[in-house]
Fold:
Amino acid sequence: MTTATSITARLIEQYRRSPLSRVQPVFFALVGMVILLAIVSPRSAEPSNLINMVRQGGPLALVAIGQTVVMISGGLDLSVGSVVILADVMAAQMISGDESKVIPVVLLVLAIGALVGLANGVLVVLLRVTPFIATLGMNFIVYGAALLYSGGAPRGDIPPNMRFWGNGFIAEVIPAAAVVLLIVALIAWFLISRTVFGRRLTAIGANRRAAYLSGVSVRRVTLLAYVFSGLMASAGGLLLVAFVGVGTLEVGTDFLLGSIAASVIGGTPFEGGKGTVAGTIAGVLFLMVLYSVLTALALPVSGRRIAEGVIILVAVALYARGRSG
Amino acid sequence: MMPTPLLSIENISKSFPGVRALMDVSFAVQAGEVHALVGENGAGKSTLMKILAGVYQPDSGGLHWQGQSIQLRSPADSQRLGISIIYQEFNLLPDLTVAENVLLNREPRTRLGLVDWRALNERTRQLLHDLETDIDPQALVQDLSVAQQQIVEIVKALAIDARLLIMDEPTAALNPTEVGHLFGVIERLKARGSAVIFISHRLDEVFTISDTVTVLKDGQHISTSPAADLTREEVVRRMVGRQLQDIFPPRLQAQGGTPLLEVHGLSNDRLRDINLQLQAGEILGLAGLEGHGQRELARALFGIEPIHRGTVQIDGQRVYLRHPEDAMRQGVAFLSDDRKMEGLALTLGVRENVALPNLNRFSRFMMVQHEDERAVCGQIVETMAVKTPGIEQPVRLLSGGNQQKTVLSKWLISQPRILIFVEPTRGIDVGAKVEIYRLIHQLAHDGAGVLMVSSDLLELLGLSSRVLVLREGAIAAELAGAAATEESVMLAATGVHG
Structure:
């Protein structure tokens, strides 16, 4: 028994010293999930299918990057699901197939997303409403606005020049959505790990009091984090409608839960203070592969929903354990 | 032969990452005795207390309760045996009455299962009466004085039939009359056969009340002896392990010129009409009983607490301090007494913590220049002799002394001219303490002005050029040179003339 313990101890020690230990667990989980997919459905695990998942995961990845930024500061944004929907139905209805309207409408929708984020930020920072309640309330308001705007039945469609960014391919192999994601991810990575803003954001999440006493303008930084999340959620909605082609009122919960799950699985704890863009994107891909596995198992929708919920909760709980232990 | 002790502590050791908090500590506590536990900050008193509370489990060693081996895995285990701890921060619910607090979760019930209010108040009155106090069981806790709240805590412990009471600095916020009253209560506890572990920095009190004195130093048990066999000087020598003159550098004098900091008529909810001047090269000590405004004054001067009336001038210019940011811009640095909550982001690395207040210095166009950052942080950490495997080490893994040096590093990069230190040596070992004393001295010697708050009078008097004593939020006395003694400070702080 003693030898077994000492061998385990030595293995753990070796792992700690190896470069492998610096790889976040989410990447191992992602690889494991792909292997599982290859076992249950070899066809789904072909490269072309995997690339397709990047395309499908693009909208969620944008939303999750925004969520990650808020979560690093120790906050939470529950309004993202509705912002996705609002952006989605507004874009479809205002553009209505007219290619010339794409650019102004995209800019308008992004501005509205940022404005919702600003409202969240004001509630949290100036009125001191806890993020959970502030953004949950905002979720209802924005969803109501989307219902009101669409009259309960989304109209309009997206012209080919915009659809290309959602479901087209560059040089016939690279999904255009992946390029959008890559650009946004690089900007977000730069923001979090290279700028003064990112450092202050992390410090606020790690210890708000200490950050304030070190001269950090906690209010300004927190406000900006919510604005960024609102902006990213509306960008996610735009990429979604470009992928689907028509508006939808149905996907709010998927984006809300998905963005939080991807962030947490990707290594951003609920209490904040750390988090990476790469981890979050890996978390999104993990979820996409998980959905494929569940589809390949041919579960009925109800069973798939339950399995999804359970697996996400287990993954999040495992992370919470790993941190405190 | 000695009777079987109530509690014996046998070869207890406990380590935390980076610190050995207790090493092979053994001693015994007898029923019916007051056992003082003394030692400097960082000697291991609080770790030992938390082990007895069931909060921490020792790495090795054991505990015996009336001769039986016991294990305390949770605070509930410890309570069940009859160990009760009265922390410096009380665990009372301010909106409830005394009786509701005393019998919380063990309220007497009527036959219908409802709370029997008459019995509740009557039982509490009886317990209070046993201690010969006149607190009304139906008074709200928030309306009581600190001393009365302390007695409520004790009564609460008696209600669960505590056999061993551990009191952590119970007199820190009390005036001499209240201390006398508390000691009366402790005498009656003794007479009932309970044991009391009394943790205090005030040696006079230790000698007044205790039967036995145990000294801890740097996590090691130094001695356990009858109080009657000891002198004050001997206890200090055992606590510190060296002579006093080796600890404090020579006293500094102000350098003159325009005062660095000048405060006129400063008032807020906790402070009344404060006037003070701080010169370059001077260490100004703020003394007083706990809760009399020293801490609040230090915080107001860093923009953490509001200033309702009065003016603050720095270098003769009027300044407005609304946020720490404002104070930092004027060259003020602030060392909080709560290192873990306010000084450091524990999960982040040394570099990130040290860089935080200096990010503007390391950045161009809002981008952090990593080479500059690493170079400056690495250098200050080296100058300050922070013991860490590297600047990326998470600060939570450093010992208390090295954490404190990390906080100092983060402030010294910008070469502040006014330094506000609140309890600069709380929770750190003697070696690191002496280094911090030297550093504070050096900073003042090089022309900074230092404002220091410390509840450790030895330290405050050893370092300060001048001492201001606060009482009830106002300055009660200014003492300098030979006039500043422990006695004169305590007299001014308590308002007793004699």
Notes: The two ends of chain A are 23 Å apart (CA to CA). Chain A touches chain B through 21 residues (CB under 8 Å). Residues 35 and 45 of chain A are 8 Å apart (CA to CA). Strands of chain A lie at 169-170, 174-175.
